[in-house]
Amino acid sequence: MTAATLKKPKATGPDRTILLVLFFIVTSAFLLISHNGDLLPQLGSVGTALRNPIVEALMVSLFLANILFAYLWRAAPWAKALVGVGSLLFVLPMAGREDTSLLDLSIQIMIFAALALGLNIVVGLAGLLDLGYVAFFAVGAYTWGIVGSPRFAEILKYFGENPGGTNSGTLAIGLVLTAVTAASMVYINRLTARTAPTAATAWSFRLASVGLVAGVILTVRALLVLLAPQADGLAGGLNAGFFWLFLALSIFAAAAVGVLIGLPVLKLKGDYLAIITLGLGEVIRVLANNLDLYTGGSQGITPIKSASVPWFDAAAGALGFTEDQYYLLFLYVLVLIMIGLILTVNVRLDKSRIGRAWVAIRDDEVAAQAMGVPLMQTKLIAFATGASFAGVMGMIFAAKQQFISPESFVLNQSIAILSMVILGGMGSFPGVILGATVVTLLNLRILPGLGEATANLGIPQQVNPGQLQRLIFGAILVTMMLLRPEGLLPNRRRQLELHHDENQEDESAQGNAGALTNASGDVYSAGLAPVKEDDKAGGSR
Amino acid sequence: MDLSTLLPFLANVIVGGLVLGFVYAIIALGYTMVYGVLQLINFAHSEVFITGAVVGFEVFRILAPVNMNGYLKLLIALLAAMLISGLLNVVIERLAYRPLRNAPKLVPLITAIGVSLILQDVLRVIEGFQGRFDLTYTLPAGFAAKFCSAESSCAPLGNFLRQIGVDVQLKDVILVVVALVSLGVLNYLVNRTRLGKAIRAVAQDRVTAGLMGIDANRMISATFLIGGALGGISGVLFGMKFGTVNAYSGFDPGIIAFTAAVLGGIGSIPGAVLGGLTLGVIQNLIGVMNVFGGALHLANLEAIDASYQRIGAFIVLVLILIFKPTGLLGKSNVEKV
């Protein structure tokens, strides 16, 4: 999205400044025209063609390609800045004013891009296969969903009717328990950092963590009971101004859940980790489905508030947005800022000590450990970082949809996010964003548009492309993996890893020239890829 | 509910869980075979197994008007399902996995997910052309009857079951017998034949096995054929057990069966069976937890009903993996397919 802020790739190919600007102007014009409700009917047959869902999806895709080209092509910096800023801050909101579904789509794309960036840290950088990533998204969404909606009042009412025990007492016990256990966990952690961990320290650490959870639960429960008299005042949920506080809280909540899930399971490797994260993701979904009091069960929670910023609304009004569009535009800008932040954090982390430790663990755990990388801690940081991005986006998602239910957090979502990461190119930030854009566009616009456009062509209902979304998506996944497994915009290191064999052949052909590539290729492949195996050895005999 | 009714109830639940567990176990074997040889989570296996269920449905549907012994119909259904699922699995391997043999693990994993999505829609389209979505099995008459009803003469097993107050349908017994027979055949195939030896060799070390003159590709194809055939069997059994399947219903049992395979120690055949049985029983027990909660006056247990079944499977998995990270029968006595 904010590709223009990224480090420029190595200048290759001819200068395409003029082409880029031309492309930007043409596609922007088309986008603005094709989403202008007043203008279209006057254009006659052209207008009808532009309203065709497939043409429309194409327009949107071509327009978004601007930003990609601004990143990829060699062009003057001013042109890149113009395309990046112009399309994201000017053209898209303007077209979105006429057709709010476009704003909605952009927010959705950016939410998924952020999720994919988060998962990219876990899977792409640290090499931990997480199939339950959407759970963290759910944590963020429910954190705000519960307090920013009438659900909160109902929970308070329930606890008002079932107070149980004396509350200030419970609160005191809960707080003390939390403090003591947290302190002892930190102490044990310090201790084991200096000396080798023993069975006693391991068990006391586990015990303390159980105590910590109990303490937090007691505290929260007591707080809820103490707050109960305010239930009526909070019938619509917390004041929307708390949005900002919870934006910060959701980061911590998701990160804490990431650590909680990570602590027991990160000892496992590879597929065991995959299946257990899948399981925990399902656990969170089933809990959301069954804890009716807190989550409204399968009915979900609605309506969920979004923050409102008066001066922003005034500005939006001046730009010609109607009142019911304010919140969409607000969220659009918020997500844009968020994704900029997340991208910055990502790029900086990648270059930091932690980032190198992640890659080291991904490539070879044993070697990394031998080199002094603290395994558990580094993996937990990866898990928690990825989770916190998902938490923030979950909250924004809840505010955008104004409705959340367990349906939005199914395993298929985790898989879709994983496929974004892999389609785009694992470990490569622009690639991951591109992957998220492509998959979201496919799922939300192109495939449904295909169904709509071909509805009257006499194709039997059963094989109408609109009905075959899974098949088409699956076919794209398989084809991509077969033809270009490193992704659309591969990470350089990863490309080396995947073309390990060819590199080796190159080297033998060129003598010493490829030695460097080959040596690094060997190191990279040790962790993720199996050692080079030649299947034909058996086949030919 | 007092103790005198609670105990037979518990026995019923456990027996039902074991029957379910056998279905899971056979599905889990399909995962574990492929995993043992290729170290790949074959996400498409859940669709391979649903293909078997669809084939079984078609055979039962076509044969429904034919006057034929019910067991013969079942045999035909099983063979057809084994054949088609097995071949399907081989084709999938040839087209989607073999070209990616040397790629990093995640790549074939994504391919597997893609294949599974494709198969779901293909199945739906095929059945959709005949105006069907939910396929309801028409089992031969008598299969749904009680095993050893009072009128018929009974084997000692039937008498014993009746004494402890357990109701078993004939189809459940058939299901267990079929599962046990296929387990026996698989065990023979893997441990006693040349083919099995070759497969085990490839599973241990593909390169060295190749040097010893074993055609690794053919052995991998054979593994996929056997895994797919097991998937076919389990599909028919699943259809018999639950009565209704559709193109998308493979997902849930697939995940649980994979959990079972991991629980038992993935790559180990007895492990898969043990895991499947454990999960089947646990699932059934959790499904009736509220009954026990009611009987024992425990309000917290009363809230746990059938909707928590899947969580139970995963929580057990988490606990076991935390304490024994290789699964119940993993590593120490590893028996890779």
From TrEMBL, chain A:
Would the keyword Transmembrane turn up in this protein's UniProt record? yes
Q: Which Pfam families match?
A: BPD_transp_2
Q: Where does the record say this protein resides?
A: Cell membrane
Highest taxon of source: Bacteria
Please note every region of biased composition (Basic and acidic residues). Answer: 531-541
Q: Which positions, given as ranges, span the membrane?
A: 17-34, 54-73, 78-95, 107-126, 131-149, 169-188, 209-229, 241-263, 270-288, 326-347, 380-399, 415-442
How is the protein disposed in the membrane? Answer: Multi-pass membrane protein
Task: Provide this UniProt record's keywords sorted from A to Z.
Answer: Cell membrane, Membrane, Transmembrane, Transmembrane helix
Q: Name the InterPro entries on file.
A: ABC_transp_permease (IPR001851), LivM-like (IPR043428)
The yes or no answer to whether the keyword Amino-acid biosynthesis is present is no
Biased composition annotated in UniProt, kind: Polar residues: 509-520
- Where does the record place the region Disordered? 501-541
This one is known as Branched-chain amino acid ABC transporter permease
- State the organism named in the record: Deinococcus radiotolerans
TrEMBL record, chain B:
Superkingdom of the source? Bacteria
Q: Where in the cell is it found?
A: Cell membrane
Q: Does the keyword Disulfide bond apply?
A: no
Record keywords: Amino-acid transport, Cell inner membrane, Cell membrane, Membrane, Transmembrane, Transmembrane helix, Transport
Membrane topology value: Multi-pass membrane protein
Q: Which residues cross the membrane?
A: 6-31, 43-64, 70-91, 173-190, 222-243, 255-274, 281-299, 311-330
Q: Which family does it belong to?
A: Belongs to the binding-protein-dependent transport system permease family. LivHM subfamily.
Q: What is this protein called?
A: Branched-chain amino acid ABC transporter permease
Query: What is the species of this protein?
Result: Deinococcus radiotolerans
